[in-house]
Amino acid sequence: MNTKTSTIYSSILVCVNYRDGHEKSCAGSGSQALLEAISEKLISKNIDIEVQTLKCFGRCQNGPVLRVAPGGDFFEHFSVEQIDKLVDYIMNQSS
User: Fold this and answer.
1) Domain encompassing residue 68
2) Which of 16, 48, 52, 62 lies at a C-alpha separation of 20 to 30 Å from 76?
3) Within 10 A of 66 (CB to CB), how many other CB atoms are there?
4) pTM for the full model?
5) Is 50 helix (H, G, I), strand (E, B) or coil?
6) Could you give the CA distance from residue 85 to residue 77 in angstroms, rounded to a whole number?
7) Residue 20 DSSP class
8) Which residues lie below 8 Å from residue 24, measured CB to CB, with a gap of 6+?
9) Would you say residue 2 lies in a domain?
């Protein structure tokens, strides 16, 4: 029987805002790919947190941006290579 690991957090909010033209945005910086990769990692680690999209944090120049909610840290310039660090953060804050 697989039991989900609970945490103090209920969701990870990932900005997927796209800005037209040459302005930087989270979606333009690859946040869509992050959604899938984060979800897959959480499932593989059996961590019970929902991954949700958000239209904008107002930090477009620092994208991709995500936040652990409720009340957790923002992660800016986030990449797929940092997902293990995100999982560690979630689990360490919940211990």
Assistant:
1) 11-94
2) 48
3) 27
4) 0.88
5) strand
6) 13
7) S
8) 60, 61, 63
9) no
